[in-house]
Amino acid sequence: MTDIAERNQPTTDPVGDVNVWLKENWDPELSVEEWWERLGLSGWAAPGLPTNAYGKGLNRNDSVAVQNAIVEFGALSAPGGLGLMLAAPTIAAHGTQEQIDLYVRDIVTGQKAWCQLFSEPGAGSDLAGLQTRAVKDGDEWVVTGQKVWTSGGQVADLGMLIARTDPDVPKHQGITYFALDMHQQGKVDIRPLVEMTGHAMFNEVFMEEAIAPDSGLIGGLNNGWAVANTTLMNERASLGSGGGQAAASAATPGTVAKDLAKRVGDFVDGGGGKRRSAGGGGGGGMFGASYKLLVELAKGNGKITDPSVRQGLMRLHTLNELGRFNNLRAKAAKAAGLADIPGLPNISKLSMSEIVRQQRDIGLGILGAYGTPHAYSPEDQGRLNDATGNPFAAMVTGMSLFAQAPPIYGGTDQVQKNIIGERVLGLPKEANNDKTAAFKDLPKNA
Ligand SMILES: Cc1cc2nc3c(=O)[nH]c(=O)nc-3n(C[C@H](O)[C@H](O)[C@H](O)COP(=O)(O)OP(=O)(O)OC[C@H]3O[C@@H](n4cnc5c(N)ncnc54)[C@H](O)[C@@H]3O)c2cc1C
């Protein structure tokens, strides 16, 4: 029952259907691995993927509704992270069926965790200027270079790697996309970077003659820029406002985190159907619930009657609603068979940056002096709660420190504006020769 025939069954009521499936299949006594195997192979872990790629071909809104239904039912949600969010849709779009069966299957069933090996010290916004080299040696590629800001690199089994395979052509044309095994001792070195929240969410990754098999080359030699853009479009769509991002799973996928053998019921609250906190992270999980959280916080300390706080909350509510309406607009256009609305993912991403800045400013305004101490560890969080008498204070400071991140990751605010200006509004591009000159002849950062 958990094969492609089931995934291919048309569904006009995805939430109703997933609830029926959950009643038959959810069992808190299973291990996390067993549960994710069932969920992944049924098509409900990533229902937005096509049916040949372990999904059900649902649109984004229906997929998010399904993911929320799983949480509300009280079952453990699908394996979260960059594998499901980025690698799976990219490989589904550009990979061969063999690669889909090799990589996507392990993503939807939580067997393998992925990270994104894109940014380098000299190539962030100018991603196509990357210097990591991959050189062919028989049926393998030898990879040497450095990546940075690699979220989740420390728990990843595989990386979405983009590397330069031809420096003699213009920079966008000589890049190839690989699946890189992160477990290559002495050849792939992962060094965590502690950020100002106190967490070490991302890493530097040094590759010294690391090996990527030819079979892990996704989407064709020197076609990596097109493949990487699929990853980036998925990133922007997932990170933007109004998308109703589904909750991340409380268990971590992959072989490194060691959650797979644990009892799945221990990751969800008994009976209540609520997701158990994953405990920490950068603050991303707080974004969805934060308007209500801030209202409660303001009620709790009497600031709800303060006109400037009320105005801030109203501004935040308006931004959230605009995001939701934009999303509905995109859905309606799709249902009517119209083309995608140009620039909408970029606008959503920009809007999310503004939302988190608003949340930061309102939250810290409500907390006043209590907003200055921050909990750098789970133990600190308890102590801070005791000191402030308010269980939300530590969440607000965590969210406020993390608010600097969304305007940077997935393409900075300035880069989103450039894209909207040049590709949507048709404004003239900055003059440069990087589309025509060979990569090796372009000036490099020191
Ligand atoms: C929380 C977080 C998680 C991340 N996770 C990952 C990850 O998992 N994998 C990964 O590969 N990367 C990751 N990144 C990296 C992220 O994609 C880059 O930080 C981002 O692309 C910006 O690159 P940069 O930091 O090199 O800044 P730069 O590109 O050096 O930019 C510096 C400043 O210059 C501005 N700027 C640059 N070019 C232009 C231009 N043409 N016009 C106008 N302004 C410009 C930028 O907007 C920015 O303000 C993460 C970043 C963060 C903050």
Describe the structure.
- By secondary structure, the chain is α+β, with helices and mostly antiparallel strands.
- 40% of the residues lie in helices and 12% in strands.
- The strands form two sheets. Strands 1-4-5-8 form a four-stranded mixed sheet. A four-stranded antiparallel sheet has the order 2-3-7-6, with no helix packed on it.
- A hairpin with a 2-residue loop joins β2 (133-137) and β3 (140-151).
- α7 crosses α10 (344-367), α10 crosses α12 and α10 (344-367) runs antiparallel to α13.
- The radius of gyration is 22 Å and the shape is globular.
- The termini are far apart.
- Mean pLDDT is 89; it is low at 243-247 and 271-286.
- Bound molecules: flavin-adenine dinucleotide (FAD).
- Flavin-adenine dinucleotide binds next to β1, β3 and α13.
Q: For the residues shown, what is the average pLDDT? A: 89
Spatial strand sequence of the major β-sheet: 1-4-5-8
Strand content: 5-15%
Strand count, sense and barrel status of the largest sheet are: 4 strands, mixed
**β-strand number:** 8
Distance between the termini: 57 Å
Shape: globular
Order of helices and strands: HHHHHHEEEEEEEEHHHHHHH
Estimated radius of gyration:
22 Å
| Residue runs with pLDDT of under 50 for 5 or more positions | 243-247, 271-286
Keywords:
13 helices, single chain, 40% helix, four-stranded mixed sheet, binds flavin-adenine dinucleotide, 446 residues, alpha+beta
Furnish the topology, listing elements before pairings.
Blueprint: H1 4-7, H2 14-25, H3 32-42, H4 60-73, H5 82-94, H6 97-108, E1 114-117, E2 133-137, E3 140-151, E4 158-164, E5 175-181, E6 188-193, E7 202-213, E8 217-218, H7 224-239, H8 290-300, H9 307-335, H10 344-367, H11 378-388, H12 393-402, H13 413-424
Parallel strand pairs: 1-4
Antiparallel strand pairs: 2-3, 3-7, 4-5, 5-8, 6-7
The structure holds flavin-adenine dinucleotide.
